Amino acid sequence: xxxxxxxxxxxxxxxxxxxxxxxxxxxxxxxxxxxxxxxxxxxxxxxxxxxxxxxxxxxxxxxxxxxxxxxxxxxxxxxxxxxxxxxxxxxxxxxxxxxxxxxxxxxxxxxxxxxxxxxxxxxxxxxxxxxxxxxxxxxxxxxxxxxxxxxxxxxxxxxxxxxxxxxxxxxxxxxxxxxxxxxxxxxxxxxxxxxxxxxxxxxxxxxxxxxxxxxxxxxxxxxxxxxxxxxxxxxxxxxxxxxxxxxxxxxxxxxxxxxxxxxxxxxxxxxxxxxxxxxxxxxxxxxxxxxxxxxxxxxxxxxxxxxxxxxxxxxxxxxxxxxxxxxxxxxxxxxxxxxxxxxxxxxxxxxxxxxxxxxxxxxx
Length: 364
Known about the structure:
By secondary structure, the chain is of the alpha+beta class. The protein has 12 helices and 7 strands.
């Protein structure tokens, strides 16, 4: 007998699907009283284990292991071990303790909260039309990309001197290497390819207004300093087909829909927080003038915009999906997506490990 079977399978149960997934149809355990011998896979001390219970376990393992299940004999042995533990716990009246009742209530609340969200998503599905609209909106917003160089200096007078030298025919990249104050200077001020929305407004407006191969004849001021900009090239982003990315768009729209659902419930409810927040004592210090450090200068040199507002998050998530398909996705978007998935999986595993034994006990 495989002594490691129980922890391996219990840790792998995944019937408690994450809240951001659509509800799938899975078999449910059959009440003990209605199990006939011909519908059972084993009997333990007179208690039948149903074929439906085996089907549930097979579905759990397959879902957890990306469609790969375990030998049926091994699964039946797992169900037998569970039943033996359940019978032992009942004999010792462990299900009558206050601790057990409290844990069961916690499990029940977790299951009910997931069921409420899954029911809402089932009643309010994300349709292909909604996915298409989100796709169209963000593809049209993607627009053009630009390849540019720039020289960043502290004053307008310095920028004017640089423009004069460029007008005389001085090479832009060589001038950037000697005059630009930021880290892109050694690379000739090269900013690579970027969308207009990735830059602060004055910079992006100047780039859009230029023709390919032309530089700005007037210095461009931003909060980072004064820029002389050379637009080297431009291109239209080629979006992937809708069918290839629509399932990547769906989870973000589901999360948005769930949040709206939770917000509506909160607005309709009367909520009073009784526990006063604990404010940690901090030593007061006099405010010091803000100083730009190297890390900030590196970011500002690239003139990339920072975090967007919550309202724009959904749009950006879909744009990132599109950029992934054309190899333009950012590392930040990938990390966010992975973090959301990992969080849902960890929540499922944590609840299901505690819930499996207890729910089997109730079913018996």
